[in-house]
Write a structure and sequence with these properties.
Layout lengths: L1 H18 L11 E11 L4 E12 L5 E9 L6 E8 L4 E2 L1 E3 L7 E12 L4 E11 L2 E4 L2 E7 L10 E7 L5 E2 L8 E5 L2 E8 L9 E7 L7 E11 L5 E10 L8 E4 L5 E6 L17 E4 L12 E10 L1 H4 E5 L3 E7 L9 E9 L5 E7 L10 E2 L5 E7 L6 E7 L1 H8 L1 H22 L9 H30 L4 H32 L1 H32 L5 H32 L2
Parallel strand pairs: 1-11, 16-24
Antiparallel strand pairs: 1-2, 2-8, 3-7, 4-5, 4-8, 6-7, 9-10, 10-15, 11-14, 12-15, 13-14, 16-17, 17-21, 18-20, 19-21, 22-23, 23-28, 24-27, 25-28, 26-27
Length: about 575
């Protein structure tokens, strides 16, 4: 009998051991852990998570690290993680410390031993893609509520911050609390205690007009250096929109970027190069007013120049130069899923001393080609440091830079001479009014405005049911073909008028800016109407937003009409 009882106890102990979850190491004894998790929704769907751990050691054994994790199935969506204590010291992170576990464990090494009766505070920052999804009623965030631990935490206070203007859709008797943090709508819940190995989820459903999802599937960047040391960039973006329509994209360029041009699969998107001022932000608006519609792909190319003096420095007189730059311009809150960066330089250039910034241990490693001119990157967010430096060895650079002071001096002499001669000659003759060119420009623009307004009226009729969609598609296709022809003709006439006088260049620039404002505002208006019809925004929000957008359209149209009246009068 005793032997059977002993055997039963032994089997029970084995069963408990097998059933116990696999974890990184034994639970930490006598620890009191509080967690504060804050999740911020990125504009294009990434989730930025900040986990603040406050650890109190109530035992006699010093502690030098803490393990925490997430479900292993979520590992592929974790693109960045770093740790820092409350004194600003960067902490080492070990990843996947137990590869046989169903959880993906990370280990944060403390900057010093945590002794008995002492408290240590550190914060883990991470970037996760996938928890924010689009649903019929709007958007939702659904992810593990807090970091998974091997022992109970006393408390986990979790807060989700949605984009401004959002509203949450939760039950009246819910354990979640709606609030506001720094102007962002917040949804909070306290888990007390936060149980060991718990993977309970935090669920935040909300509606908003300021949340988008964007899959930036492919980016290729060419960093081009010519034989005189001039620095230029060519970037190709390929993306997919899985959610609500996107009227325009905001892209931050490197400091000093100028001569910026954009091209889509049809043709050039701007009539003339843009020269943005700090902070060097540009707007990319698709050719047609509906923007990037749900389920559509969009591809475009950017080209621009950069100041040589800022990024390329001479190291010594015989032809060594240091390039300090970033592999990608990742300042915008979007995830680069796959990117290729190429350094293109003249024949005879050798590259040495390549230095890349350290990456997060959870990030995909940067792959570098054998000649150190091609880089492959995956899963890059705006949290990654992509700075790099390398040395070029090429004598032609020296010859180009060496004569620069002489060129500058010569230019000063020429400019001074030209000013003296101009003063001697007296005032310049007035530029003759190009009547025929002005008439051609005004005529083309009037036709373009009429077609654009007719398209807007047709879209409204379709929305009211006064025009069947088949007829709308047929007529709009014909009108858009004609608009393409008009745009090409206008580009040529604009170029000729700009060359005649700086005044005409300024008037045309004024029209272009107003037209861009009109197109962007109309796209935003269509987007807001679509979200209202789908029940994703309230009537009050809809009325306020549409009223504001309509005022912007009216002001821009008034600018266009006033400028065209001026040109019509000169063409008489």
């Amino acid at each position: 009998m005793k032997s059977k009882l002993f055997l039963a106890i032994l089997l029970l102990m084995l069963a408990v051991g097998v059933a116990a979850p696999l974890h990184a190491k034994d639970p930490e004894p006598n620890l009191v852990i509080d967690i504060e998790r804050t999740v911020s929704a990125g504009q294009y769907g990434t989730a930025h998570i900040s986990d603040k751990f406050t650890v109190f050691n109530n035992g006699t054994t010093p502690l030098s690290s803490l393990d925490f994790g997430l479900p292993r199935v979520s590992r592929d969506n974790l693109y960045y993680a770093s740790a820092q204590d409350n004194e600003g010291r960067t902490l080492a992170l070990e990843v996947d410390v137990n590869k046989t576990s169903t959880f993906y464990w990370l280990r944060s090494q403390f900057a010093q031993q945590l002794e008995f009766n002492k408290t240590y505070t550190f914060t883990v920052s991470s970037v996760v893609d996938g928890p924010i999804t689009s649903v019929a009623t709007g958007f939702q965030y659904n992810f593990t509520a807090a970091p998974i631990l091997a022992s109970d935490a006393r408390m986990a206070n979790v807060t989700y911050l949605a984009p401004s203007g959002s509203s949450y859709k939760i039950a009246l008797n819910s354990s979640y609390v709606i609030g506001d943090v720094g102007g962002y709508p917040s949804l909070s819940r306290i888990y007390k205690p936060w149980k060991a190995y718990s993977n309970e989820t935090f669920f935040a459903p909300y509606v908003t007009v300021n949340q988008y999802l964007l899959d930036l599937n492919s980016v290729q960047r060419d960093i081009i250096i010519d034989n005189l040391g001039a620095l230029s960039i060519k970037e190709r973006y390929s993306m997919y929109n899985p959610s609500v329509g996107i009227s325009s994209l905001t892209i931050t360029l490197p400091e000093g970027a100028y001569n910026v041009m954009a091209y889509d699969q049809v043709a050039v998107m701007w009539a003339s190069p843009q020269n943005p001022s700090p902070p060097y932000v540009i707007q990319i608006q698709p050719r047609y007013s509906l923007g990037i519609r749900p389920g559509e792909n969009f591809t475009f190319i950017l080209t621009y120049d950069l100041p040589q003096s800022k990024y390329l420095k001479q190291l010594n007189w015989w032809g060594s130069y240091n390039l300090t730059f970033a592999l990608l311009q990742n300042k915008d809150d979007v995830l680069f899923k796959d990117a290729t960066v190429r350094i293109i330089a003249p024949d005879g250039v050798s590259i040495t001393n390549l230095k890349l910034a350290d990456q997060s241990p959870v990030s995909y490693p940067i792959q570098v080609s054998q000649d150190e001119r091609t880089f492959k990157l995956r899963g890059i967010s705006n949290a990654n440091n992509l700075g790099f430096g390398l040395t070029f060895n090429y004598l032609a650079f020296w010859s180009a830079m060496g004569i620069l002071p002489w060129i500058v001096g010569l230019e000063v002499v020429i400019v001074a001479f030209a000013l003296v001669m101009r003063l001697r000659r007296g005032p310049e003759l007035a530029v003759p009014v190009p009547v025929e060119k002005l008439r051609e420009f005004v005529g083309l623009y009037d036709e373009r405005l009429a077609l654009t307004r007719e398209l807007v009226v047709m879209e409204e009729e379709v929305g009211r049911g006064g025009l069947v969609k088949h007829e709308f598609r047929r007529r709009s296709k014909v009108m858009e073909l004609r608009l393409d022809e008009l745009n090409k003709s206008l580009m040529e006439v604009k170029a000729e008028l700009r060359a005649i006088s700086p005044r005409y260049e300024e008037l045309i620039r004024r029209i272009d800016r107003a037209e861009a404002e009109i197109e962007g505002s109309r796209a935003s208006l269509n987007q807001v109407r679509g979200q209202y019809r789908a029940g994703k925004t309230t009537r009050e929000t809809y009325d306020t937003v549409t009223n504001d957008i309509s005022k912007r359209i009216d002001r821009a149209e008034e600018t266009v009409e006033t400028t065209l009246i001026t040109l019509r009068e000169e063409a008489r």
